[in-house]
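pinging the channel bc i need a second pair of eyes. not urgent but kinda urgent?? the chain im working w is below, pasted from the shared doc
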Amino acid sequence: MGDPVNRSVHLRFARFNLIAIGAVALLLSILFTISVAQERQTVQSLSATNLRLNGERLAVELEARTWELAEDFLRDAGLQNLAWSLAGASEPGTVLELRDQLKATVKAHPIVGHVVVLVDGQACFPQLKTPPPRLPIADGANGRSPIEQEFAGLFQEAESEFHQGRHDSAIALYLQSCDLPVSNELKSYALSHLAASYAMAKKPMAADRIYHQLEDRFGGYYDESYQPYALVAALKIDDLSANRLPSNTDHLSALYRDLINGRWQMSAELMEDYKSRIEKRLGAATPSNGETEYLHEFRLARVVENTLPPVDVPADPQRIRTLPIKDGAADAQIYWVLLSATGTRNPVLAFSVNLGWVSGPLLVQCQESLKTGNSSVPPFQVGVSSPLAASDLIVPFRTVFPFLTLRLSKTAAEASKAAVRLDIALVAGSLVMMACLLCLIFILLSRVTRELHVLQLRSDFLSGVSHDLKTPLTLILLYTETLCSDESLSAEDRQKSYQVIAREGRRLNHQITNLLHLSRIQRAAQDYRMSEGSLGPVIDKTAAVCADWLSQHGFSVRMDLARNLPLVRFDPERVSQAVMNVVDNARKYSGASKTVDIRLWSEGSSVILEVQDYGIGIPAGEQQRIFDQFYRAGNAGEQSGSGLGLFLVSDIMRAHGGSIELESEVGQGSRIRLVFPVSGATLEEATHSAGYRVLIEKA
């Protein structure tokens, strides 16, 4: 009988051991799964923040490099002399020669798209208007050779005969002038008048022959109205033809392509006239080439002429200035400089940025320059600014290219996080195959590994934030130097400079305060100096500062702060920091409403501060996570941020024994409440149990 009893006892013992081991393994698995999920969320939040910071660093570097290259081009002494020459040139041959020199100069500066030279606000290169006609033989006889004097005499006599209707006599005189050994310019001038005389004398075949000769031999020369003989003769030949032959159509099509591709040096006025006349003749047979670079030059010149502000003589006339131009498909970033601040002509040299080169080679150069060690910048691409796609990370430019953004596709963003996700998946899979006795060791090792990885991400995050801190510091230095160096600033400009310095100083101080708070939390060295009193004065003062700050951003702030509130134990500095973080969060995500409400009242045993905006709201599935460290909502859009503001607010409220509440609806806005308990034992118990060092000070 003893054996069955012993077997029953052993069986019950074995079952108990199996159940105990299974329960321990299940508990460890649950704890590890929760740990992995939390770490994954932290890693994903940090990775997303680092991606945005990398994009912002790349945008700043691209803007700085663009400005450097633009300044190198506009400061080129040879280019400025060439611009002076272009400003005074009108002869087609001279302009063509200067234009070739300009192309050679631009070739060494790939940042340059098209160059425009203006005088007194009018574009003179490329020429928009046709200069007054010039007469090759209108000058007096002084300085001419005997042959040229003979040519001028014959030509003037022929002109007289032509105007008196004696066309045959005029033809004979024109023929004599054509036979003289004069320059091609004078000879082509005589041939064009000879052809016109034949046409008036009702001799179309002779006129056709002379026009063909004029086009074939002198097509690159220009008449007194700056019209190329190739086009003048071709249209006259077409007019003289009884029937339009296919060869005529092909020839006009070829001339049309030459015209819109800039074969001849012409004004926009003449070019558009000939373009319209040839299109009318060709009809449906007109070649479809779209807008060529030559046509785009004229279009840009018109836009620059109409957009650049009136030229004045600033305190620093040689200062490089820039201006974005919104012109639909022809958006451009213009850099320009005043060539001279003396005299009455005030010439301006301007150029458009070659956006194709900026988004290609220059972007690659900037990405290479930002590499540090084994880390590289994610493969951002430059794209046209458009409504935010849910799958893309968008980083706007701050000072130039308002019509462009840096974009990182969802695929590229996911690829940069692939190593982290793979590591998590491998560890989770290994847990299933490991024995229960090794499970605890594995959890400890994996957590250490993940903590090291998180620390590395936090280090990268702080490195990126340091670049973000440079922006307000740079603005403060810039406006301070301007105030120190330029005594001619008006009172209004000085006031604006002071406002910018104050605003950016507050912004810098706010960012540093948040970072110091985060550092103390991580070192468990956060001290709170509590004193008993009313929240009203502190909230009133902080809200007034926030209202002034928000008003500079175009916001309307409505405040309703109750008086005679119950006493609360609180740290004034930390409460002020929490209020500013909540208000700043409302500013960032207020959308187009530009309205923020701040209310303070007491209810039961609590004092409640509420900040409400009417902006984009927070999706329901993310409302519990926005108080996590480094987490940013998925619909945050292009707003910059580190995901620390509400996390720090939550930490401050825990230290005060209070709570933070959120009500939000997408598209309707968000309402955040900070609930402070009235004075009592609850505050001391809550703060000590949370591990904070609280120093109670008497008011």
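so The mean pLDDT is 78. and The first strand starts at residue 112 and ends at 119. — does that match what u expected or am i reading it wrong
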